[in-house]
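User: Teach me something about this protein's shape.
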Amino acid sequence: MKQLLFIAIIFTFISGSYIYIPSIAKAETISKEETTTVATRKFAVDKKENVKASDESADITNNEKKLLARLVHAEAKGEPFAGKVAVADVVLNRLDDKQFPDTVESVIYEKNAFQPVQNGSIDKAPDKESMEAVEEALNNGKENKELLYFYNPDTATSDWIFTRQVIKHIGNHAFSI
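Assistant: First, the predicted structure itself:
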């Protein structure tokens, strides 16, 4: 079995394709009428990186989606749809960055991270467009992968935020790294 797995991994490196490796599988004899389901995980192999699971995308709960949509609504109300998606992307990008917490809730409620948490506007229900922006951010593979911060240059009061390298402007927000 180890030799077969080794050969499959080598072949994958050479061909750049995918392989399926069972997470947990027990061999047993079954009759012809029975069916057995074996749990598998899909692994993507990048020739430049180690083997890693391809299901590492941001899987968040419905409650986390609603919380993120409330933040998007509070932070980007009146902004274009692309700006709302970018606000959601900032939170999702922070989940993958070691300098930030690793859950949606802890990123959003991190001390002094987002004004709506401080002023209570995060508690207002999100609109349909904010919910759609969150879904777009989750489904588009984080189009704005590098963005970690955003602010309104006309209203920001922190000198520190102005030291961040601005990558793009969408509506009234500057998005930075």
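Now, about its shape. The longest strand covers residues 19-24. Residues 2-53 form one domain. If you'd like, I can walk through any region in more detail.
User: That's plenty for now, thanks!
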